[in-house]
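Hey, I'm writing a tutorial for new members on how sequence and structure tokens pair up, and I'd like a real worked example in the thread rather than a made-up one. If someone can provide the structure for the chain below, I'll link this post from the tutorial.
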Amino acid sequence: MDRLRRLLIRRDGWIEMYQHMELSKNRVIAEKNGMIAAMGRHARAALSGYLVDEASQGAY
């Protein structure tokens, strides 16, 4: 019975560790997605000549 109790506690520790790891990784992914979206909003089209780009957002 004691061995089973110790194994369950050990299992619970592993589950908790992986839950924290997943939350941490999801935060990092969300930050990087935000950075990518911001870079897309601030990208300007390559212009040449007398054109002026004052209001466009992103380039495709």
